[in-house]
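Researcher: We're teaching a course module on how sequence relates to structure. For the next exercise, students receive a sequence and then see the predicted structure as tokens, so they can try to spot secondary structure elements on their own. Here is the exercise chain.
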Amino acid sequence: MEHILAGKVRDLYSIDGDVLLVASDRVSVYDVVLPTPIPDKGALLTQLSVWWFHKLRHVMPNHLISATDVPPEFRGTGIRCTWLQMIPVECIARGYLAGQGLREYERTGAVSGVTLPAGLVLGSRLPEPIFTPTTKFSDTGHDEFITFADVTREIGADTAQRLRDLTLELYTAAAEHALDSGVIIADTKFEFGWDPRGQLTLGDEAVTSDSSRFWLAEKWQPGRPQYALDKQFVRDWAVSTGWSREPPGPAIPPPIVAEARCRYVDAYERITGVSFPP
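Model: And here is the predicted structure for the students to work with:
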């Protein structure tokens, strides 16, 4: 087993011709890893991804080979996957307005070139889900909105159309299930790549509390901050400290750590119907 890459949250290893994707308990906000881990976060992200990979495989294939055929030290936090040639576009589907999408809308009346109705506020449900891709092509290293036309120029019209269609289909299927469980998926991010046979494949993670905005449906109320079952809780706390959003990030106090873990567990259990640990 060879260590290939240490990301903000995940580590990648090469193992017997496959890739081992291991989620850690590290938490990253505004592209900065905070010094305090969230216990069980890696296991929660991994197990929720595995659940969604099985749930959504009727839409398209994904890179998961096994969640059990992994080294013992990574059991529960690691998955064995197919190598993919990743497409350099983060494919985001939005059904509600929040975060970067809200800021872009307030500035331009559109998100990623998709014009939206006037008068929308934080938490507004959109008339229909929209495709709002981002990329890290710029020198800032941060995600930046691009339009569908930008994606078409970068990877070609056929692949761009397939990415948009698949992103929205995956989001719609996930959002409908989650809402039945009392969770609104306001938005979520997918990443895709080509497998060794040239087949377009879902990679990375799938619909987790790190890659999505999960809101408690019973508390949803447009025009105010929503009750988040995702990383937004930690983001909001970090901003409240007066942190500049530049490294180093602030240490997270124990009560915030405990509440963040509780919300990650709540999202997992509501969506999967399984107690954690499973």
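Model: If you want an answer key for the exercise: Residues 52 and 174 are 8 Å apart (CA to CA). The helical segments are 41-55, 99-108, 148-155, 157-180, 232-240, 254-272.
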